Amino acid sequence: MFSPTFDWVFAAILAVLAVVFFMGKGAGVLRAFSGRDNEMMVKKKRTPEEELRYQRAFGWCLLIMAASEVMMAILAPYFFWVPIASIVIIVVDLVALVRYLRKNFPD
Description:
The protein has helices at residues 4-22, 27-32, 39-43, 48-75, 82-104. By secondary structure, it is mostly helical. The protein is elongated and about 50 Å long.
């Protein structure tokens, strides 16, 4: 988006966060971005299996975003359609994440 270096750094950050979520250690990251008044954490505690599924969903989302950033870093200087494709991929990824979370974690 800005430069290939930025895309590589952003892809690395997203990949590291994806690994953290796949390992099941992303609760602190989720808490950090949840805000002070997070009703979702107060409403219902999830079982450890549900929490792992919840974090893996975020892990897959971040991994797809990282792949999109790698695509941007490699192909964007050569093809004009790559940034548009990257935006479409990220929007579809986020919509799929929200649909998955609403379906499997309705609280």
